[in-house]
Amino acid sequence: MPHRCRIALLALVLSAPAAALTRLEAARILTMDPDRPYAEAMVFDDEGRILATGRAEPLRKAYPQAREVRAGDAVVIPGLIDAHGHVLGHGLSLLQADLSGARSPQEVVERLRAFAADLPAGAWLLGRGWDQNLWPEKHFPTAAVLDAAFPDRPVWLERVDGHAGWANRAAMARVERPLQGDWQPEGGQILRQGGMPTGVFVDAAMALVERLVPPPDEARLRQALERSMAALVARGLTGVHDAGVSETVFALLRRMADEGALPLRIRAMADGDAEALAARCREGGPYRHPSGRLAMAAVKLYADGALGSRGALLQQDYSDAPGQRGLEVTGMAALRAAMVKARDCGLQVATHAIGDAANRRVLDLYAEVLGARAGSDHRWRIEHAQIVDPDDLPRFRRLGVIASMQPTHATSDMGWAEQRVGPERILGGYAWRRFRDAGVRLALGSDFPVESVDPMLGLYAAITRQSTSGEPEGGWMPQEKLTAFEALRGFTVDAAWAAFDENEVGALRPGLRADFVLLDLDPLRAEPTALLRHPVRATWVDGRPVWQRP
């Protein structure tokens, strides 16, 4: 069938009225079900539950009354799940100045000037995405660069990883406490020269400026969420583990779920030892919306900062910054107390840990707090697990800890990561293969908006460990590559398992939800570079299309 006719036919059946049963046929269905890895057809009911998978002709005979959807030469895969993203943060970034990929402070200013042209006088100029590692000098910027262009308007710009911010003098002048001197906030760092702030604030120090930025009202929050979710489903995501959600935002998400306004599944993590965690404890533990589109059964904690801003907590000094070992964003006592509270409320713990010291501390605390449950089916997680002492790798398996990792972090960081930690410690960095070979569950994601929301980039990075231009030849630290099947599993079966969703999503087999994606290609057979061509044709959740390519 010609491509244009095939797309027209697909659009026709997608617009047809819902029937009690639907039978979808495609060139190939990758089910991720070990009992039936491949199929030609799939039948699901009006509630979005899969009834059968198999060869097309027997299912036509078994379900003759089913509405027919013929997807032509499309390949169907289970809905992709991003195991670590920030839905609101991504949506807000779409409403701010986009600084990602800027190659110099001057380019940042140029983008800011263009964005500020439509801002009201006196309004804060907000942006996100700058990365000094992409600039020729690779040095942190200073307020002076922003002051020259914006002497009066307050400017606040988040670094690409969200672990540092850059302010001008107009913004810093609003901070109530004098910023000069040698004092530092707990869990953060104000960068200074000669005792005076340079304009860069790392981790907890960011709050000094952030608390001054007028908060978005509910209408803007909803606009940000809607824009973000629309972008997610357009890239084939049917679920996301939202790593750090306040009770205010969760209440809004609950209202949206009541309205049927969530096009994908959000597994929200409470934002630390704050009101969302307290609310779940008051309500008796994990929350799940009747629709299945929203849940909060976990809490997100922070052990350290990020490697790019030298906030990741290391056991020894940074190789490129002697005397610095990173930041303890949350103290051991506070981490332990939050973990105990979550444990006693029946919630899963997911802790951000990037440096080798932070990963060891979290593993030690998990062993202590879980006690006899360590190694059982608690499914506690470490988010990122970027630089891990090789001696600690087997502890993940022994303690039953999930490694929630983001493949595109490796391909974004590979140009400078070894400079941060040196040639020996980097061997424990971004070590997906070593984790899998040690029997550790790998839940894969992107950490959007730090990285792109596109899971195809994650699959590509996991398989090749190369930039989108194919560098370096053979891949960076190629011994850590995953196979195409392992990468796809990390975004489906294992991501679902990491959120206790394995009886709902992650594969295409009877009893599970009909969450799936139609692709132009077979991700297990295609050349990895083909994944970069945006092959998603349509995204379905609960047996209904939530996005289709025009």
Task: Sum up the structure in keywords.
550 residues, 31% helix, Urease, subunit C, domain 1, nine-stranded mixed sheet, alpha/beta, Diaminopimelate Epimerase, Chain A, domain 1
Can you put this structure into words, describing what you see?
The strands form three sheets. Strands 6, 13, 14, 15, 16, 17, 18, 19 and 20 form a nine-stranded mixed sheet that branches. The protein is globular, with a radius of gyration of 24 Å. Among the domains are: 124 residues, Roll (Urease, subunit C, domain 1); 118 residues, Diaminopimelate Epimerase, Chain A, domain 1 (Roll). The two termini are 18 Å apart. By secondary structure, the chain is α/β, with parallel strands linked by helices. Helix 12 links the parallel strand 17 and strand 18. Helix 3 crosses helix 8 and helix 11 packs across helix 12. It is built from 19 helices and 23 strands.
